[in-house]
């Protein structure tokens, strides 16, 4: 038997802490004893039902997990190996990490980075992993610190917090956009050189605005992303990875055809194995234990339902790590 958060649709959509038999685990060639998971925006939507992200019922949410292989028929893993998972539809259409056990397709896993404990890797989670993928995309495009400042939207959230820290660590000048003026000191401790009010970007704007930044990492979407592109310098690039404001993009082609701005989509769900490993290796040399403690709140599995509501109300700073064994 193991404890898990279970999302059910009947008689009404609800999430509860349940004790389940191992026989209820889904199909997969690797069974993992989970140590830690996380609470991401998508997990909060799944738990509360505020958006239809769950594709099958019943379902265990949790798009991240770190733990130890208990049983495996996959050639890459054996019992006792430490492993890590981000994405691949886990927590949406396959049982995820907010449980003491998970059974998964071994192709979705990577070896756990030696630089981190399981708690630390989940403090990074999909949020930090996505921020690193955004930085890698911008640098493949040719960005370097001499090009000028880089804007980070949604700055006090998980992706934003890591994006600031990673960019600053690489020598970039960072502008942080947030709706939480009281978080300015926190953002500057992470490495932001300046902080602007997200209201400057969140309303409908001009097709082209004054050139302000060489590049950006955006986790917000909608009008914010449109305004970010409109104010990006000629030949700059914007890495887009989220939709906190909305899935729409009410923009024009002006920044792209008049300034040569590039919009780089970043998919953190189904990256190839080599790129996942590269991203986590770079995180291992870029993120310190002190930084992780600054942005991390730890809760037990039974606290995740209440924390999901807090997250959706915008009351969470940084990252929530879930100890599934308490």
From TrEMBL:
Keywords assigned by UniProt, alphabetized: Oxidoreductase
Residue intervals of the Enoyl reductase (ER) domain: 14-322
Protein name, entry field: Acrylyl-CoA reductase AcuI
CDD domains in the cross-refs: MDR_yhdh (cd08288)
Listed EC numbers: 1.3.1.84
Database matches in PANTHER family: ACRYLYL-COA REDUCTASE ACUI-RELATED (PTHR43677:SF1), SHORT-CHAIN DEHYDROGENASE/REDUCTASE (PTHR43677)
Lineage of origin: Bacteria, Pseudomonadati, Pseudomonadota, Gammaproteobacteria, Pseudomonadales
UniProt gene name: acuI
This protein's record includes keyword Oxidoreductase: yes
GO molecular function, a single term: acryloyl-CoA reductase (NADPH) activity
Organism domain of life: Bacteria
Organism name: Pseudomonas putida (Arthrobacter siderocapsulatus)
Pfam families noted in UniProt: ADH_N, ADH_zinc_N
UniProt enzyme class: oxidoreductase
């Amino acid at each position: 038997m193991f404890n898990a958060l279970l999302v059910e649709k009947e008689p009404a959509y609800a999430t509860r802490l349940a004790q389940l038999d191992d026989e209820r685990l889904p199909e997969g060639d690797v069974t993992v004893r989970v140590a830690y998971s996380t609470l991401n925006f998508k997990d909060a939507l799944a738990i509360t039902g505020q958006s239809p992200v769950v594709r099958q019922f019943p379902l265990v949410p949790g798009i991240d997990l770190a733990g130890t292989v208990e049983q495996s028929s996959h050639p890459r893993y054996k019992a006792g190996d430490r492993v890590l998972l981000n994405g691949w539809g886990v927590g949406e259409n396959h049982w995820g990490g907010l449980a003491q056990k998970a059974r998964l397709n071994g192709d979705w896993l990577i070896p756990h980075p030696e630089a981190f404990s399981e708690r630390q890797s989940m403090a990074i989670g999909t949020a930090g992993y996505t921020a690193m993928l955004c930085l890698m995309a911008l640098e493949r495009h040719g960005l370097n610190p001499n090009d000028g400042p880089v804007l980070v939207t949604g700055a006090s959230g998980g992706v934003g917090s890591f994006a600031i820290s990673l960019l600053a660590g690489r020598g970039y000048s960072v502008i942080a956009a947030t709706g939480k003026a009281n978080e300015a000191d926190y953002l500057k401790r992470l490495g932001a050189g300046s902080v602007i009010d997200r209201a400057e970007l969140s309303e409908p704007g001009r097709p082209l605005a004054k050139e302000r930044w060489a590049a950006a990492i955006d986790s917000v979407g909608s009008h914010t992303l449109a305004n970010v592109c409109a104010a990006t310098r000629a030949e700059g690039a914007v890495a887009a990875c989220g939709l906190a404001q909305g899935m729409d993009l009410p923009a024009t082609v002006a920044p792209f055809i008049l300034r040569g701005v590039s919009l780089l989509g970043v998919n953190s769900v189904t990256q190839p194995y080599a790129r996942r490993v590269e991203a986590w290796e770079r995180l291992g040399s870029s993120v310190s234990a002190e930084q992780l403690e600054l942005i991390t709140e730890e809760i037990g599995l039974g606290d995740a339902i209440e924390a999901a509501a807090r997250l959706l109300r915008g009351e969470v700073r940084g990252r929530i790590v879930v100890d599934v064994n308490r």
